[in-house]
């Protein structure tokens, strides 16, 4: 393998029902920086059924080129059919870097493609950079245990690939006057050859806690002590009309379902107000909430790392403070006789 | 029906410690456990076997102590267990791990053809979720990731019907046997192990293979040598400035906070209901 044969930064554009996922737009923003540093074009690649019209949006968000494979068999995501498309593109055009959103489908696709291309894949990246001299992608992610990040490199194989967490990178402002090249690629796929069928897609909104879209989140940690005390988190959230989140330790203790976990292995959230109550602030938690607008932390340990990311911190016992907060907000609501709404 | 579950021994990350000087994991600080997702994978195999009959094998790659997770799997209900252990496997990333496991699966399949491979959604230490799909590609069987329910295993038609979790719901998928699935925790509850399983587990001796016991192995694809990714550096993320710590008694602090929140008019408004 001659590493110099590989050029360009590519982003997998994930779409569902002809709508591009936010994470793909964020990756175009991140990819733009990498491509500029390496002085190569940024490309998006798009697979699906009747998705060609989306290509212009990919350009508006920063791509110089868009590779499109449009085929009825690609209507719903399936590992088999999508990876055939990606293999075709990657082998023909030989990009040096490919980024995917760390979504269920993005991770599934990247893992399969990495195996067949025989190359490295970094999972759930939260920081991206390139070293211009060596042209190496520096994909960093929290590593097991403590407040540690590890930078993963892939020195001898190409393309260098990474899945990247949603909501940690920033999309560019779309610019519809941008110009770019759209390259359509043909593929032969037969439905009869597919071993897997998608019979039904169910959008289950009831199960979704909407953490990702919440304006205000009250997130409780292990510091609440037990399941009983954790009800204070629910009470507070209800009083102010917020959504409830928890740390992984809380989810593992069975105080909350996994859908409500915030962090590296849970949801990434960016609310206007984030209450972190009884949370130590481990890196795996912090990467999932640090981009919130206003962060308020309550912790009885003045040295807890959560105070490093908090806009305002209260050092004290949550079991005392939260009831007072609930009381204050209730009084406020009574005085004004209304509900709290969020802009 | 022959189901093989891939199980990994992981440090219990809840009590793990990092050596602040070297930035490395202090393995002695954390007890080793069966990866929680893999426990659900074994449990799901048990549930499938209740309907279809057949055999459950578990397969692990790791140091000799990893026999502990095989015993744990027998407790949950697996029939037999294989451990592949060899210095040549050490330092494997997900690509090299899936290669080694697929070679072991080929050998297991020679003894008894494999119908379904089940992996956990991810291992709590490495936390990548890449090994399952990697194995599936190497065996050329369909991978179905993030499975939350196995609806039906149809032995006559040789198909499996299952629900796969998506960002906003799920999809109902049918695939052919043989196949590989990776399972979420919500797929089942781990049941209490019946006494006979416990006794069997206590006495059980796993089948142990070294690289030389596997066939057609390209040694350059194993372990550190076969791993395209390397850890470049470990670093503590730059500590953000941090904000303001409020001071005073609890009541004073809460009052200050209320003032701050109410001042931020763009954040929320109290709407009068009349
Ligand atoms: C691979 C991997 C992935 C992970 N993914 C995630 C993830 O997605 N999300 C996540 O959250 N974690 C994740 N973790 C776990 C993470 O490392 C931490 O263990 C976890 O976030 C700690 O949760 P906690 O803050 O609730 O508990 P603890 O760390 O136990 O902190 C409790 C805090 O509460 C404080 N406290 C105690 N009593 C009180 C009181 N009465 N009043 C006020 N404060 C009090 C204590 O001072 C302490 O700071 C992951 C770990 C690994 C290894
Ligand atoms: N060393 C190993 N031995 C057996 N199974 C493994 C091993 N590593 C990973 N797996 C399987 O692959 C799944 C995903 O692991 P990972 O890709 O490391 O997050 C795990 O839940 C296991 O089922």
Structure in words:
With 343 residues, chain A is an alpha/beta fold. In chain A, 29% of the residues lie in helices and 28% in strands. In chain A, the strands form four sheets. Chain A has a seven-stranded parallel sheet with strand order 7-11-6-1-4-5-12, sandwiched between helices. In chain A, a hairpin with a 2-residue loop joins strand 2 and strand 3. Chain A is elongated and about 65 Å long. The mean pLDDT of chain A is 93. Chain B is of the alpha/beta class and 274 residues long. Chain B has one domain: Rossmann fold (3-Layer(aba) Sandwich). In chain B, 28% of the residues lie in helices and 31% in strands. In chain B, the strands form three sheets. In chain B, strands 11-10-9-12-8-1-6-7-13 form a nine-stranded mixed sheet, with helices on both faces. A two-stranded antiparallel ribbon of chain B has the order 2-5. Chain B has a two-stranded antiparallel sheet with strand order 3-4. In chain B, helix 2 packs antiparallel against helix 5 and helix 3 crosses helix 4. Strand 10 of chain A pairs antiparallel with strand 14 of chain B. The complex binds flavin-adenine dinucleotide and adenosine monophosphate. The site of adenosine monophosphate has 24 residues of chain B, from helix 1, strand 6, helix 3, strand 8 and helix 4.
